Each structure stands twice: as structure tokens, then as C-alpha cells.
Predict the structure.
Amino acid sequence: MTESTPGGLENLLSEDRRFPPSPEFTAQANAHADVYSWADADRPAFWAEQARDLLDWDTPFEEVLDWSGAPVARWFADGQLNAAYNAVDRHVEAGNGDRVALHFEGEGGDTRTITYADLKREVSKAANALTGLGVETGDRVAIYLPLVPEAVFTMLACARIGAPHSVVFGGFSAEALYSRIVDAEAKLVVTADGGYRRGAPSALKPAVDEALTKGEHPVEHVLVVKRTGQDVEWTDERDVWWSDVVDSASDEHTPVPLDAEHPLFILYTSGTTGKPKGIFHTTGGYLTQAAYTHRNVFDLKPETDVYWCTADIGWITGHTYVVYGPLINGATQVIYEGTPDTPHRGRWWEIVEKYKVSILYTAPTAIRTCMKWGEEIPSKFDLSSLRVLGSVGEPINPEAWMWYRRVIGGDKAPIVDTWWQTETGAIMISPLPGVTETKPGSAQVPLPGIAATVVDDDAKPVPDGAGGYLVLTEPWPSMLRGIWGDPERYADTYWSRFKGLYFAGDGAKKDDDGDIWLLGRVDDVMNVSGHRLSTTEIESALVSHPWVAEAAVVGANDETTGQAVVAFVILRGDAAGGSESADEVQTTLRNHVAKEIGPIAKPRQILVVAELPKTRSGKIMRRLLRDVAENRQVGDATTLADSSVMDLIAQGLSQPGAKQED
Ligand code: WT7
């Protein structure tokens, strides 16, 4: 079991605050208490009904679930549909073309209102332009864009022609972008000159230019959205402006009917080894669970709600709960390009007030940051429109939960703490508003149609009140269909720890009521501000610097970001001429990691040490390093090959200048 968990959540099982749904909320809720029993009675039948109810099919399916090729599931496999048709056209055909799909708010305050009819035109034009650039059904398209409407248009244009997209978060480096382009064999990259970040234009295209000089690649064209008007370098033949090819394209386009198991997208995420995994999702099952969960977990009423999920489209949350879930459901939503504190710390609350946002979905790290800034900031705005609050990405500590409920939700909006992963595609464990009595800090119960439990080392379900590992015991519609190009790694990573069970990588406990509490990762994966980072990947980045002989990275508890990256490095004897100060070494290496992976992976601290604690078999004992990083008494070190190492590290760190933060 995990030795330490973010926020020390294992001590919080005595939580006895309870928030039953109000009778008024329950009376109008989409979800009803009896749904659990009927979904449990026949899971595939439950999902088949959702698939028929929530989606329009070009060819209706007869087959529901085929699990004969486990661990690769096939859902609704003989059916055909198109994701973009379901997200856009059918709403226009149903007479809702004038409904706002996107309220875009730029960081600098520029806005754009896009109705479903507008969206249909924009997506059709983009689809025609992609086809004009040689993209065909089955080809992959890399998307490296800020959160601007064109990002949504491009994703849906890809879906419309059946070209799986691979969105790469704009904060990733040229190196990271290059490896993702090559792994997915993307033919086209869609990017922008730049985006706005903390009040200033921040360039994006240079990273694409640099990525495409790193080696062989299959990219034929780079499609460039003009967002900031920054100067860009131009490669004739390869680069094309969005305004040249999309704006002039026809706004008539027929969506391509695709098999339910046609890949919809690839999204890379960090695993326990150095190389990011291309998680891929297909169409019918993914869309079914995206739509079902979005409608029921957020109690969406498409005619009246204004929904806002603060995630970037570079993460799975942006795929499922900015693009596919809300648009399939015909929702009106806000998308915001910028950061919560630009130009002031009330920016988010100003947006909630302005658009009368009724459903807000964000991450605990953001809530904790706002708590730190003080409640007088949100209190200046009218937040009375909010009626459902969601949380995702990491465990939410009860204190932040209570603050979210009281200060943002006016003590009335139910909070849904939603557990899921890039791999699960959609929400798996969460309360249902109007049904579940909520508890601060616990994601509580698997959704209807989902089978999750907590098991011990021998794969036996633990009794209430005990801890272990979170596993999923039955296939679900939006489950990943694999790791792009590496079926073996898929089986090894998720299905080998416990036979026949999907192992999520999270530690969890069941409380006395049988509710699930997530306790953080038990593998070498860190969760920083709800973003997944791999210790090994950052270690590889560090040792790729000529000064570094060896590196060990751990995720240490952090009040705001959940976990923070702390690196221990051994410098080479001849490194850096020895004249650099600890400060310079730290800055250089932090920047090096940012360049190799992206600024999100920058270690909070880099500690130069003379030795690393290792077992006799040479495995680094990260547990001990985490104790040091969290200023704890160092735990049991009896399995160390050399027991004096920890003393050495402790002594070294107590010297002035050795341990610094910024
Ligand atoms: C990991 C998945 C799901 C979208 C964002 C992150 C952690 C996620 C919760 C939650 C406790 C959570 C888990 C999981 N996680 N949601 N509500 N409570 N932990 O997606 O990058 O694929 O990361 O995030 O550790 O395994 P991701």
C-alpha cells in the first residue's frame, strides 16, 4: 500500500458531515435513485439504452458488448454514427440552431458568441479545408492550439471526417510535441501564431517549427490560426493560414458515417516509464458515456443551464467535458482562454456573473488557490446562478470542499467530486446530484452501470473501513481501447497487476458506509495541479543534461498543487566547472526540464546530493526521498545497501544554500 498520500487523506475517514440533497433539487433532478438497481441488473442493457437515447445512429446497433477480445472491449460494434453530426448538426435540425453553443471569452476580454448554426458552418468549413489539405478518414491530425473556438472547430472537423485527433497541450515543449507527432504519425499539425497568457501574447508556432526540425516525421502541412498577430517564420509549401483555406471553404459538408469502434482520438498521458502513452478512444461507447455522465452528474438542462468547465482541451477533461459531452447534449457553455488571475484575481467569478454560469466544473488546485487569495474576492460577485459544482483531477481535501460549497456554491449547490482518468474516458465514480447525500472529500459511489471496488494485494475486495487499490471490475463503454501502437503495453500496464481487473494506479479506501475515498497514486506517477506527470520521465529529462550523473524525482505534498515535483540530483564530477552556485544549478536544471517536457514539469525544488538511497538491487528508494522532501522523519531504511546515505543527504541539505525554493 502507498506509504503516504496527498493531503494525508487516510486520516480523514472520521468525516461525519453530510449534505443530503434538498427536496427542491431532487424534484427536478435528471437522475433518480432507482437507476442504480436497474443498471446493476443488466449493465450492457443499461448502456445500450443510453446509447440509443442520447445519440443518433446512421446504422443502429444490434450488438451491445463484445468482451471476447478482453482486455479490448467492443461496444455497439455493428452500429455507425458520426460524432460531429451528433454534437452539432442534429441540434440545428431539431430547431435549436439559434442556441448558443460557445460563449468564448478571450483572456484580454475579447468575446465571440457561437450558436449551434454557426458551429455547423465553422466545423463544415474546417472539415472541407482538412480534406483539401489531404487529410482522409483514418489519418491522424495533431492539434497544438490555445483554448480558442478554432480548437473546438478543428476537433469536430476531424471527427466529421473520421481523422483521429491528437491534441497536445500548448504548454508542452517542442520535444514533447515532436515525439507525439511521430508516435501518432500525424499528417497535419493545426496550431496558432500564439495565445494570450497572463496578459501577454505567448508564441506557439515556434515550437511546431522546432519540433519539425528534430528528425523524420510524416507532417505534410501546418495549418496556422492567427490569434495574436505575432511575427511567425513561414515555410512555404508546408505552412498555410487558417484564414486562407478555412474561411474560403464551403460551409456545406456531409459527415462521414463511421463504425462505432472507429478511433475518435489519441491523447498522450504520462505513465510509470519514460515514454508517454497514446491512450486511444473510439466513437460509440465513448460518446455514450460522455453524454450520459455529463447529463446526469451535472444535472444538465440544455435549454436553461450555462455550463463552464475550466479545463484546457489539451487534457481529457477538455475532450469529454468541454467538447464531446456538452455539445452532444446541446448545452450552452463558456470557454475561457486565460488564467484565473488575469487581469485580476476575480476574473473567474466575473465570468460566472457575466454569463450567469449555473454549472461549474474545476479542479481542487484552483479552489485551493482561490481560498488562498481570500473569500472577499469571489464575494464581490453575484454567484447566485450556480446550482451544481464539480471537482476533478485529484483528491479534494474536505477543507477545500467546504469552502467551495459555502463561498462559491452559497451553501446550496451540490458538489460532485468526480473520479476518472484519461484511460476511463469519462466519469466513473461520483455522487449524483439530487440523489446522493454528499460527504466532503469522498467521490463516494461508482456511477450506474460502472463496477468499481477496492481490493487488497491478493485482489480480494476489502471490507468497509479498509484500504487497498482501486480497480474496475467490468468493462465500461468509454474505456480506452488501448495504447496507440502498443497493445502489449496496454495489457501489461492495466491488466497484469490483478488478473481480470483494470488497475487504475490509485490507492483508495472504503469508509464504514462503503463509500470510496481516493488516496492518490500508488505508482511512480505524480499529480501536480491535477496534471499527471511521470517521475521517470522527469528523471530522464534531468539526466539528459550534461551536468547530471543521476537523478531521482518524487512527488511531495503541496498545499496548493496537491503534489509538487522535487528532484534529487547527483552532479557529474566535472560538471559545470564547479563554479556555479546552488542557485544557478537549480535554475539551469529547472529550465532544462521545462525545455524537454514543458513548464508544468519544472521541479519545485532541485536538491544536489552526493548519493541516492538505493536497495541492494539498485532500486532507488523514493519513499525515503519523499520523507526528506516533506521534512519528515526518514522512515525505515533497513533495506538500504548503504545505511549511511540518508545521513549524508540530511547533512548536505542542512548546509546553507543547499535547499532553495522559488
Ligand atoms: C488521475 C488521472 C480525469 C481528468 C483529470 C485527470 C487522479 C482524478 C480524481 C478525483 C481523486 C482523482 C487519479 C487518477 N484523479 N480525479 N476526483 N479524486 N483523484 O486525468 O491526467 O488521466 O489523471 O487523476 O489519481 O488516476 P488524468
Notes: The longest strand covers residues 548-558. Residues 116-132 form the longest helix (17 residues). The pocket of WT7 is lined by residues 269, 316-317, 392-395, 417-422, 443, 504-506, 518, 521, 527, 530, 532 (CB under 6 Å).
